[in-house]
Every structure is written in structure tokens, then in C-alpha cells.
Amino acid sequence: MFTKGKALLAMFVTGLLLAPTMAFAAGSGGAPIVMVADTRKLTGIMAWWANLYNESHLYFTILTVILIPVIGVIFGVLADIIMHFIGIDLKSRDLAEH
Amino acid sequence: MEWLYILMPIAGVKIFWPGLIILGIGVGVIGGFFGMGGAWMVTPGLNILGFPMAFAIGTDIAHMAGKSLISTMRHGKFGNVDYKLGIIMLVGTVVGFEVGAQMIMWLERIGKVDMVVRWIYLGLLGFITWMVFTDIARRKAKDKAAIAAGQEVDKNATGLEWHKTLHKIKIPPMVHLDVAGIYCSAWLPIAVSFFTGWLAGILGIGGGLIRMPALIYLVGCPTHVAVGTDLFEVAISGLYGAASYTYKGRTELVAAIIMLVGAAMGAQVGAVATKYIKGYGIRIAFGLAVIGCAISVFLKLLPVYVPSISQICDIIATYMILGLVSALALYITIKMIQGAKNEIAMKKAKA
Q1: Does residue B211 sit at the A interface (CB-CB below 8 Å)?
Q2: What pLDDT, on the 0 to 100 scale, is given for residue A34?
Q3: Which chain B residues touch A42 with a CB distance below 8 Å?
């Protein structure tokens, strides 16, 4: 004999198992929107960057994905140096509770 | 004051760049401390600064990937990152996220997608709030009972113990997760990450807000390890999300880099603050952040039923998010400074 809780749980699990089927049946959606950067007011590196965006989203994406972690690591290391200079121990943590 | 504004090359809008740095610092502090990207805070913030919504989301994800990487590096050195668990969970997260995103496409076709998503989000936030504060209340009751019985308070005791039940599932392969101190079926983190990834895909968020409590209450990670491991997940999935949004032409890297200047400092402060705040202290602050997030989502839902209050609800929601970000960032920063001061003073006393 199923309790209400078990019945709800069974419905939820069924829904979860059917989710991929429903999702794949949906296929892809959303119309693509073409955006163009206005390069007329830009100079130097900004103009180059906007032109790269207009010419190839693929190269623009590759460069972005490379630049994000590189810049993140550079800023992270710089912040490390500053914190170490202040005198904070950045390698251990005493607290060990849950 | 023209020098305080910078023209964004892709979006074509002029942005107040000190605002980007301040936003980066605030969200960096909170993200590094709680182990989440903070999309629910950054996206409206960027929108207020003048970004179109499509660019606000893409730019947020790009900055989130870099910021989470900085935080992961710091947490990794503290021993808060279980890389094995993170890699296992990555599989479920990516698959779950894609299934969730496809479901959204399907919901869009049958209409009312915004309503469904917002109600699911609100229900989920309500559940997380209940879970966090129930756990805290039960843990306090355990501590009181131990003191009343004249016993020592167990530092590793938890209020909710769902993970203990889930650890009884012995479906092979079994895995030892040394950093988290867990021995369980590999299917547990895979199932949990698929579920949290699926929810994140449906809600269109990074998932840190869901994954961090899931790591604590379902997988059984200590709070600090949950924070660090979640950030590792956010960094990897954030980079994937950044690639996806950038390819669709919706990322303003210049803004993301400016934000990273602030986030680099903020993420360090947030991550280092976990050194000085106990696990349950992090849980309480996290619970408060979730309440704030829930109220802001509710305020976005309200105008659907009462259109006349749309503008006032938007203003309240915006100021509430910004106020909450400021208050939490300030609290974490103060705690970090106090802890660092004590540590330096103790070092000097020993010398």
C-alpha cells in the first residue's frame, strides 16, 4: 500500500527519468540574432577587438576563453603577493569543524 | 567627469567603470566566501550600470569564470578543494545542465516559460532556506543537549544528517574522497550533480546557489570543502558557459576584465575569510543570502499579478540586492580583517 509521500516520490522520480526524453524531443529553439559592433568611434586595441568580433565569432571566442583564465591567474598571483606582504598565512587553515 | 566612463566596444554603451570595479569587489568577496558565482547579484548590477540584459548575462559568466578560478586557487592552497569529487561531479553537471537548457526550449514553445522558471526558483530558494535554518536549529539543540549532559560539544556534529542515509547506498563503484573525508558510491555525487545541473540549466544560473548546499546536505562535505569544491565546479562550467555565450556574440570582455580587477581582490578576501569563520557561521550567512535572493525573485513575480506596482517592485528588488551584497561583503571583510589582525598579532607574540 503506497503512502502519499511514496506516491509523490514515485511521480517525481518518473518525471525526472522522463525529463531527457522530453528535452530531446523539444529539439533546438530560439532564432539567432546577428549583432554587429559599431567600430566608428573606436581606436587602437578597442577597434581591433571590435573588428575581430565582427569578422569571426570563433576567433573572438577562442581568444576570450584563453584570456579569461590567464588574466584571472595574473590577478590572483598579484593579490597573493600583496596578502603575503601583509603577513597572512595563505597555506593553512586551523578550523576543522563541519 | 568624462574620464570615469568607458565605451564598450561590442555593446556600444558607455559604462561607469568604477561601478564595475566596486561590483567586482562585492561579488568577489561573497563568491569566494560562499563558493558561488553570484549571477543573481551581478546580472541586475550590470543591467543597472547600463548593459543590455543579453550582454549582462554573458559578461557576468565570463567574469565569473575568472573570479572562481582565483578563488579556487586560494581554497586549493587551504586544502578546501576535493578535485576528485569536483571532476566526478562535472560529468553530471554538464549533462544535467544541457538537459535543463533543452527543457527550457521546450517550455518556451508551450509558453509561460518565465512564470514556470520563477516559481520553481522561488520554491527552491524557500526549500534551501528551510533546510539551512533547520540544520542550524538542530545543531544548536544537539550542542545544548551535550552541555546539559555534561559532555563535550562535538565539533563535527551536524543538524541534518541526510548524507548518512545516502552513504548507505553501496552501488559500485565505491569511491574514497579523501579531502572531503567521504566513502560512498560514485553514483551519489553523479546523481546529485545531474540534479543540481538540471536545475541550474532550467533556471539559467551557474548553480553554486544549489550545489553548495547539495554538497553539504546530500553528499556530506564539510562546509569549507563544499565551498572550495563548488568554486572549482563554477570555474570549469563558467568557462564552458563563457565560450557558449561569447560564440553567440553576447560577451563584453572589456567589462569582464575591469570587473576582474575588483573581483581578484574581493575573491581573496572572501576565500581568506573562511580561515577565520566556523563552518556553521558560513551556513548562517549563506541562509541570509538565500532569503535576500528569494525576496528579490518574489518582487519580480509580483507585478505579473499586480501590473500597477511593477516599477516600485523593480526599484525595491534592485536596491535590496545591492544592499544585501554591500552588507554581506562588509561583514565578511570585517571578519577577515579581524582574523588577520589576530593572526599577525599571534605571530609577533611568538617571535
Answers
A1: no
A2: 54
A3: 7, 9
Cβ burial of A50 (10 Å; 0-12, 13-18, 19+) is buried
Are residues A98 and B7, on separate chains, in Cβ contact within 8 Å?
Answer: no
Residue showing cell 539567432: A32
Instruction: List Cα–Cα distances, A46 to A40, B3, B24, B182, B252, in angstroms.
Output: 11, 16, 22, 50, 11
All three cell numbers of B265, joined, read 581582490
For B68, the enclosing helix (H) or strand (E) is helix B53-78
Does the beta-carbon distance from B239 to A50 stay under 8 Å? no
Burial of A89 (0-12, 13-18, 19+ CB in 10 A): middle
Residue B10: closest CA among chain A residues belongs to which residue? A37
Residue ranges covered by each domain of chain A = 1-86
- What pLDDT, on the 0 to 100 scale, is given for residue B178? 93
B253-273 vs B17-34: helix crossing angle, rounded to 10 = 40
Average pLDDT over residues B315-333: 85
| pLDDT tens, residue by residue, B121-178 | 889 889 999 999 999 999 999 989 989 988 887 777 788 889 999 999 999 999 999 9
State which amino acid sits at residue B48.
Answer: I
The three cell numbers locating residue B9: 566596444
Write out the H or E segment, with its range, that includes residue B66.
Answer: helix B53-78
User: How far apart, in whole angstroms, are the C-alpha atoms of residue B215 and residue B192?
Assistant: 8
Task: Give the separation between CA B351 and CA A30, rounded to whole angstroms.
Answer: 65
Residue of B nearest to A55 (CA): B249
Q: Chain A: nearest CA to B293, how far in angstroms? A: 25
Contacting residues of A for B251, CB less than 8 Å apart? 64
DSSP structure class, residue B16: E
Q: What distance in Å separates residue A1's CA from the closest CA in chain B?
A: 23
pTM listed for this prediction: 0.81
With an 8 Å Cβ cutoff, is B156 touching chain A? yes
Residue B184 DSSP SS3: strand
Counting every residue, how long is chain A? 98
